[in-house]
Design a protein that fits this description.
With about 130 residues, this protein is mostly helical. Helix content is about 65%, strand content about 0%.
Length: about 130
């Protein structure tokens, strides 16, 4: 069976649609506490959970976004270095093996950091959804 394509909504667009959900007083208190622990509004918390549950967008805190941005910058810099190495090799010049070793070590370092951050993000997301902070 073919899966339907999911359109990823733009973040920060005008929010003119409303979703109503009925909850008990205890559920509402738990939701408010979980949203507060995640550092977002109740509306933002629900929106993130619904989009995450739909497989559209993960729930990320401000700190998560900062870490991801730093990792992305590291990957960009490694890509620039690898392109310079490739250009040098394609021009028929040699590259010192230590330069390749350094680039490989950098790729492995960033890969380990991304895997660690994603694992941590998955654990935190579960705790945040349960209001465990």
């Amino acid at each position: 069976m073919k899966e339907a394509a999911v359109r990823i909504p733009k973040a920060g667009g005008r929010k003119d649609k409303t979703v109503h959900v009925r909850v008990t007083d205890d559920e509402h208190a738990a939701i408010e506490n979980a949203a507060s622990a995640a550092g977002v509004s109740v509306s933002g918390f629900f929106r993130s959970l619904m989009l995450e549950g739909a497989g559209v967008r993960p729930m990320l805190t401000r700190d998560d976004r900062l870490v991801m941005a730093a990792l992305l910058e590291d990957m960009r810099m490694i890509g620039i270095n690898l392109n310079q190495v490739a250009r040098t090799l394609n021009s028929g010049k040699g590259v010192h093996p230590s330069e390749l070793d350094i680039n490989l070590a950098n790729v492995q370092r960033v890969q380990a950091a991304v895997m660690s951050e994603l694992s941590s993000l998955a654990r935190r997301a579960g705790h945040q959804r349960r209001g465990e902070g």
